[in-house]
Predict the structure.
Amino acid sequence: MIDEIISDVRKEVEIRKREVPVNDLPDRMDRMRSLSEAILNSKFVPVIAEIKPRSPSEGILRRHLDVTALAKEYEAGGAVAISVLTEPKYFGGNLDSLVEVKSEVDLPVLRKDFIVDEYQIHESAAYGADSILLITSCAGNKLSDFLALAKDLSLEAIVECRNAQDVKLAVDAGAKIIGVNNRDLHTLRVDLGVTKQLAGYVPSDTILISESGIKTAEDIRFLMEAGANAVLIGTVLMRSKGPRETLQKFVQA
């Protein structure tokens, strides 16, 4: 599935590049809100709460979604940042949601997508993202260039890894925030133990975020003890009837 997603994303990016060339994208209008500072300064468990309308493996996660109302719930629940899925075909996201969330909360906002082209990084800054997700398998040998461009555009970057080789590539490229995806993007199988296995490869001065498959306070305690500095949670919050209350339990885990 990951290969199919990347192929479709490349096609969509080419269309957007023709419709709005990179030089026609607006300049960033606001000051970047630092994700890394929000994580390091948190007095509770740093939870990045995600807005993800649907999932390829689990379908629609929340019907009648009001992204700004949900973002406010996340903020009230104690999230340190909000992740917004912007990929439309497989995750039901869009860039307009990024703008809406950024205008309604005071938290750092992460654009989560499959970034395969420099254009998407320029686009992220233009739409007000504070940070972006770079997946090692999507960025390939452009990872260093992507990180440098993100820095030039005042964007922080989470470099998502799946194995020890990915972590080495991320560290060598200069990543300061590493995300470990507990979900295998090829099989969609989830194993929280992946974070524990890879934590030892992440330098002590680098922030480690555990992503995917986190459902309970016990999961969070396991991951924090395993070496994670923060967690990113989406599905369980999207399905919660009380996302604020659920998030409050998580940040106090």
Summary: Residues 2-24+32-251 form a domain with the TIM Barrel fold (CATH 3.20.20.70). The mean pLDDT is 95. Residues 2-19 form the longest helix (18 residues).
